[in-house]
Amino acid sequence: MNCPKCNSSSHKKNGIVGGRQRYKCSACGYNYTVELKSTAFSASVKRQALQLYLEELGFRSIGRFLGVSHVSVQKWIKKFGQGLEDLKSENEISIVEMDEMHTYIGNKKILLDLDCC
User: Inter-axis angle of helices 59-66 and 43-54, to 10 degrees?
Assistant: First the structure.
């Protein structure tokens, strides 16, 4: 087991907190535990939350569906989005193609026939 901060393998025991063994890194002095918390959600739950978000469900509805807090769902999505920042292209976009739907909706005239009601 390595230190999560400096990745050093030299450590010593540093007490028990909440029933879990704590360790102190000899190199940087960072305190850490090795075991995952029992409240931690699996990667499959986080992946399912991401899929539901991409299907345009809201954070609260995803939280109700999966049985987790909507704040947790929001943090998972934000963390995933920050991971995508590295994948962005460094090239600037010079040409943008747009659809005519905006101009159609903006100029569409709605006719009301109140006699039929």
Answer: 140
